[in-house]
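Sat 14:20. Reprocessing the chain from the morning session after the first attempt stalled halfway. Input below, unchanged.
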Amino acid sequence: MFQKVIGKNSGEPLPPAPAPINPAPAISNEATLQQSVAPSRPAVAATRNVLSTDVEVKGTLKFTNDLIVDGRIEGEIHSDGNLTIGENARIKAEIRTATVIVHGKVHGNITASNRVDLKAGAEIVGDIKAKILTMEAGAVFVGKSSVGASTPAASPAPAQAPAAPAPKVADKV
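Finished this time. Tokens:
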């Protein structure tokens, strides 16, 4: 701050004081900065996976949380997570996930434990099984759908009397 100069004329400018060197506060400030930034990052970004338009997969694809596909997949897709099929995506696969949102093209069966949403540009050729099925105007769906809670397999069929034999028709000669 103030410097006492001995033997110098008061009219001469003083040389600048050297900056104090103290690396410890800089490191602790940086560590504090990293700690304060890390919690503000959204946790979802770490669990969302993206396959862009230049990606092509052949085989079985498995993932855990969320997957967004805008490329090509041929084979099988299995997950307990959520699958979003982008508008540029071309899928030839059997799909088994919790939820599926389709914007692109799918050739194959879709089985979702929760829901399937077909958006306006979607084209699906295959069967769909889900608790909930939504379809926007403009979506194309060719196949069978099974919607709602699955019926228990152990329910007995109602008993029926044996059918009478069909009457025989004689041929005229």
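Confidence is low (pLDDT under 50) at residues 23-45, 151-159.
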